[in-house]
Amino acid sequence: MRFVRYDRNGVPRLGALDGDGVVDLLDAAPLGIAPALLAALADMKLLIAAGAGGLRSTAQAVKQAPAAARMPLAKTRLLAPLLPSLILCSGENYWDHREEKPEVTRKDPELFLKTGLGVIGPGDAIPLDRRVTRKLDYETELLIIIGKPGRHIPATRAHEHIWGYTVMNDVTARDRQVTLRPDGSSVYNLGPGKNFDGCAPIGPALVTADEVRDPQKLELRTTVNGELRQNNSTAKMIWTCAQLVEFFSTFVTLQPGVVISTGTPGGTAWGSDAELGGKKPMRKDVVTATGYLQPGDEVVCEIQGVGRLVNRVVAG
């Protein structure tokens, strides 16, 4: 199934995508539904925590939904499908992204956090605040949604804890993230480089894991104003989704609604920025960026079978 949050007269509501329409979950709820499930139909984190039983009941309700519970998707304003308080992020998870920037060696996944305060939804504006950055960059990433709690989860059982997936644009302030030393080495500051208003567009929908046959075989693309900038596959991840769940669960107990971002491939604007150590790759399948994002730019982040996330940059 595919779940969304949408705006109805200024009030966030939960919906399920059904063909070219949206079914409002509360309007579709049958009479006599259990109070706990009724609450889950109004709160995405509770719906995720309801697990397989909640999904079965929701699917049945959507199938039997009356016409009054349905509306055209084209006339529905979608919101960020989930509002996590924190986003667990893994950087440097594709070899071609490593190769386009200053050399870093590590044996484990890179771990950093993004604040949920920066989450925006599909169609929302990404603000370019020049007091924060003059080098605003895009990063299309697959986002894992945890459904079953656990700690020290082995990779072989990670699938038991993954509820679903969505798309995230890990918007980054490059001039806050990296500083070059005189000797050419670099210092990373992932706190300020990754956390600001609009730094985490998410959506458009949450896709349950059963709809994604293999999360390591998904085509990933980014376009800016129609130019193809990133073109890769999750098959090229250094650490798989399952391995990332194992890694992050080493440190904290993963709870329902926790999200893990899985890194971005090469093709970022950073790769063309010699001032920050970028190493412009010679690729024929993408357009090499000539600069960073500017007001008016339209960024499209697309992952096969998961979704197409569209946002426009505005002066902040």
Give a quick rundown of the structure.
With about 325 residues, this protein is α+β, with helices and mostly antiparallel strands.
Give the helices and strands, then pairings:
Elements: E1 2-8, E2 11-18, E3 21-24, H1 25-28, H2 35-40, H3 44-49, H4 51-63, E4 70-72, E5 78-79, E6 86-91, H5 95-98, E7 110-115, E8 119-120, E9 125-128, E10 136-137, E11 140-146, E12 162-169, E13 172-173, H6 174-177, E14 178-180, E15 186-188, H7 190-194, E16 200-208, E17 219-224, E18 227-233, H8 241-249, E19 259-261, E20 298-303, E21 307-315
Parallel strand pairs: 6-19, 8-16, 9-21
Antiparallel strand pairs: 1-2, 1-5, 1-16, 2-3, 3-4, 6-7, 10-13, 11-12, 11-19, 12-16, 14-15, 17-18, 17-20, 20-21
Number of individual domains: 2
Q: Over the alpha carbons, how many angstroms does the gyration radius reach? A: 20 Å
The top-level CATH class of the largest domain is: Alpha Beta
Shape: globular
Distance between the termini: 36 Å
Q: Please give the number of β-strands.
A: 21
DSSP strand content: 25-35%
**Averaging pLDDT over every residue, what do you get?**
94
